[in-house]
Amino acid sequence: MNTQPPPSLEVRGLAYAYPDGHQALFGVDLTVGRGERVALLGPNGAGKTTLVLHLNGIHTAGAGSVTVAGLPVAKRNLAEIRRRVGIVFQDPDDQLFMPTVREDVAFGPATSGLRGAELEARVVAALTQVGMAEYADRPPHHLSFGQRRRVAVATVLAMEPEILVLDEPSSNLDPASRRELADILRALDVTVLMVTHDLPYALELCPRAVILSEGVIAADGPTRKLLGDAELMGAHRLELPFGFDPTSVASR
């Protein structure tokens, strides 16, 4: 008897066209196993955001299917799917709107019905995971940008998601904040899908990378191998920083 749990994410033949007729995805197949950290790479307009918005049901597949931990992304399952797929936006201010950090992190679980000591324990656990427990009673707007991003991650972790989707997590971070966030993400026991143009950060955090280009998966493999393929990179408008050698750095 096979007792293997289903993968965190399974996308099969996913195609999607916007109402204006623009075809954004052309039959995407992607499987992400539990606990994997995968970078989703590609030029602007490749379909990355469109794909991510299918993961929690904001977009509905024109063709194909999406399942999260074996649960189909369908209208009847949306409440549970949106708990399981936690999206951390590029701008933390899009997620933080309550008077205090504690209230921001508590908002999702409280809306789902958690109360009292159980809710407080969930909030403390999420803030501890991102190193922000001592800031629980601070107004979010008094925090640095890097601290606000960590709180935004905590608001998602408080929902105990199956998949953490990060949209450009390193953008606008100073070097120390960038490293602190990387340390936090490496320590999390959760599946991570990281959408980024920051190729060194992808290499540092994600052993596996997927290149989405013109609505299809153009490559899927070890991040270091993909980034070291100059012909592949050039064909899909991906450029490493000047002087950066991906073969000399191993992702962790």
TrEMBL record:
Source organism superkingdom: Bacteria
Q: How does it sit in the membrane?
A: Peripheral membrane protein
Any single GO molecular-function term of the entry would be:
ATP binding
Compartments, record wording: Cell membrane
InterPro entries associated with the record: AAA+_ATPase (IPR003593), ABC_transporter-like_ATP-bd (IPR003439), ABC_transporter-like_CS (IPR017871), ABC_transpr_CbiO/EcfA_su (IPR015856), Co_trans_ATP-bd (IPR005876), ECF_ABC_transporter_ATP-bd (IPR050095), P-loop_NTPase (IPR027417)
* Main localization, broad class: membrane
- Membrane keyword on record: yes
Q: A Pfam family matched by this chain, by name?
A: ABC_tran
Q: Which CDD domains match?
A: ABC_cobalt_CbiO_domain1
Annotated ABC transporter domain ranges read 9-239
- The yes or no answer to whether the keyword Cell membrane is present is yes
Keywords attached to this entry: ATP-binding, Cell membrane, Membrane, Nucleotide-binding, Translocase, Transport
Which family is it part of?
A: Belongs to the ABC transporter superfamily.
Xref: PANTHER family: ENERGY-COUPLING FACTOR TRANSPORTER ATP-BINDING PROTEIN ECFA1, HEAVY METAL TRANSPORTER
Q: What job does the chain carry out?
A: Part of an ABC transporter complex. Responsible for energy coupling to the transport system.
Q: What is the protein named?
A: ABC transporter ATP-binding protein
